[in-house]
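Archive entry. Fields below.
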Amino acid sequence: MSTATDTRSRRQDQLWQALSVGDEDAATRTLFGALEEGMDAENVLLGLIAPVQRRVGEEWAANRLTVAQEHAATAINDRALSALSHHHRTRTAPVRGRVLVACVDGEWHGLPARILAEVLKLRGWKVDYLGAQTPTPHLIAHVHQRGPQLVALSSSIPTRLPTAHATITAVQATGTPVLVGGAAFGVQGRYARLLGADAWAPDAGAAAERLEQGPLPRPAPARQPIDDLPHLADQEYTMVARTHLSLVRTVMDDLQDRFPAMRSYTPDQSARTAEDVEHIVQFLATALYTGDPDLFTDFLTWTAHVLTARDVPAHSLVPALDILTEQLKDFPRALHILTRATDHLSRTRPDHAAADDARNHA
Amino acid sequence: MTSRSQDTALHADAPAYAAWTSVPHPVLIADRSGTVAYANAHGTALFSGIRAGAALADTVPTWLAEAHDRRIANSPEAAGKPVGGTVSGQVAGRSFEAHPTVLDERSTVWWLVEDTDLRLAREALRTERERTAFLAEASNALLSSLNLKRCMDVTARLAAQYLADAALVVAPAAGRRLPVVLCAQGGEPHEFFWDVRPEEVPGLAEALQGFPPVPSRWIDPASAPGWLIPDGFGTVGSIVVTPLPGQGVPGGALILLRRTGQEAFSESEEVFARLFAARAGAAMSAARLYAEQFSLAQTLMQELLPPVLHQIAGVEFAGGYRAAQDHERIGGDFYDVHPGAIAGQASFAVLGDVSGKGLEAAVLTGKIRNTLQALLPMAADHQRMINLLNSALLTSHHTRFATLVMVSAVREANLVRLRVTSAGHPPALIVRTDGTVEENASRGALVGALPVAQATTVEETLAPGEFCVLFTDGITEGRGGPLGDEMFGETRLRRALARCAGMPAEAVVEHVQMLAAQWVGTQAHDDMAVMVVAAPRSHHLSAVDGHTRGRFTA
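PREDICTED_STRUCTURE:
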């Protein structure tokens, strides 16, 4: 048992090395080497490719990889997976039903869905993999054309949840159940239930297990998206989503008034600040959509970590929240969300300030 | 008159009951021992054999006799007052409410009020409500799918749930094998095929042809062919074949089966089954038409879809495309790569942009791609290809024009040599291993607008890990960003490419596509195409030193 674990962690390190220097051949050799050592293909997918890909994301968040490097590492992992898939294509005959695997529109992280597609193929399902960034109309046309018994949807970014909701409902309206997975759907899949998905799985292995337990129940007919989220009736989401560009502009202008130093930012620095503000507004809108203030607080906590890793003081987020609070004073739910997040950031501020001080002294 | 004489006959010795003869409902009086004391004329007409002194239990239905016993068991109430304990039940096919009142301490009067019409009306209302709800559910379920198999599943499941013990849905087929979906009550639908002669079942062949119009047909279970009866179904009591009316195309047939012991289909059920069949037939024919149109569109579009690129003769090619309209997969941008005809000859790659977007622009991209493919034998001379393409476009009925960039790429040792020609197109960008981004100097006029389209060809050399990027203005002119109104712009593209140095061609394409898509967000954008031509990295050397150019240039 321990030798199997050793093999796996040794191969994980090897794969990580190959990805971090962009060596596709070495990545592919690592996967096939693991196969030759007796690791089964599903284990290579779930125990090798998936955890190393998670590490890629973690390394990016810790500022040890740039976006482009993250992308290169992911692309190489993806290509190594293709080689593995090609190798196995002829070995497993599809004996089970048809499953459609896709990412929510606007979701670029295609690898988790790809891994699920490969695991399901290995287990004998007929799989249609539509890839990252699947426009919902394509997905629905595909469902009508092929009539899969299930659609598996992947999303890693919470801001795609409103789109995911529309997609889930549209698929269910065709009488096809939807299984969702990915970090976007929250701890224990809480947003999966909220958005009316028929099932949620924490990872590709669990999704495959769930499918083997038997078919998912048919979704109820004539369900309307608003039935899941009655709080949308207050139109706060609609207003914030519609005016998000002008909100970002207002926050940027006001920030410059409050911090004249911002005026001397390089175009790159300004662009990054604008991107941060855009994310804040997008996550605020998503929290309004789901009706869950924690979604916004969690995002800010995570952003604070990422900023700290990039030597940007985390409490710099607070002024942006203050400006949004002024702008959205007529929106009670938005105010509640912003207040909670501001309180949380202020409470955690001493830690970060201490960390900053420590860095400055070092 | 007869009833009057019976009334007298029964109660000649009971003048005390005379007043009851005028009550316009059946009335019974019984004592505490359950013996009948009196029945008026309506009562004797209703309960044959009733007479004073008879046991109630012998002359009235059980539900009434038991109600009387229950009353006796837990009375005594004050005389003359109506009391609770109204019961209802049927007598000889009619239904009554029986209201008890206390006459004196010995006797109870049962007033029987007929509610047969009300009950029938209620039952009819309930049936109609159920049917309406069923038809609404059926319509919802059927309208939501454009997949034929799923429509058949839904039809079979609903029919087995509401109309029969088992339902078979048969789709028309071109060949001999008929697709069938069978669903037993409470079960799940499953599909199989019949290799049979439908003529053996009266009405089935006509239903499958959709002509001539036929009504639902009753089949004698005894004469039905064995293949019609599902395995393990039991003894069939009744079978109905109902055509599923399609809209100009045959819709198929619905076959309903009930076991013996179940009621046969009533006339109103048959009418109802027809209403259901009309909806199912419409949905199934719509699904068939959709599938036909879809496969037609697929076939026509196949030629217009951007090709999947890969490595050719030691040169890496990768491409990505996003149409302006999210629901379309084709548009006015295009790219193509053709391998050289013989080993050692350059591969020919082209990326271009036709004025306009959507299907019409896509049709012209198809024409340009075909023309260029025909001109491949002269790929060594880009200017000549452009001239011929220009005259072909000028003489066509299209008023559109195009810009494009051509690249001939050939591997020499571990280098890739390129000849690049831009015809009115944004210049190709060359990304070196150190992240320097250079602009290819080729310039030229767009094609399809003027009698002459002049362009220059400029050569480039790619070391391992270096690549050449071709893109359309949909990438650089996409408006968006955090503030919503800024162009993505070439500067941003170049900066992004500088960070891509050394990445595999596919990863570069995906990275550029992702940045451009995230930039425009949900805003409207033009077609976006990007292609990368790369010299593969040589890893055993890069492991020694990945950053020194010239070391691998043998």
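CURATOR_NOTE: The first strand of chain A starts at residue 98 and ends at 103.
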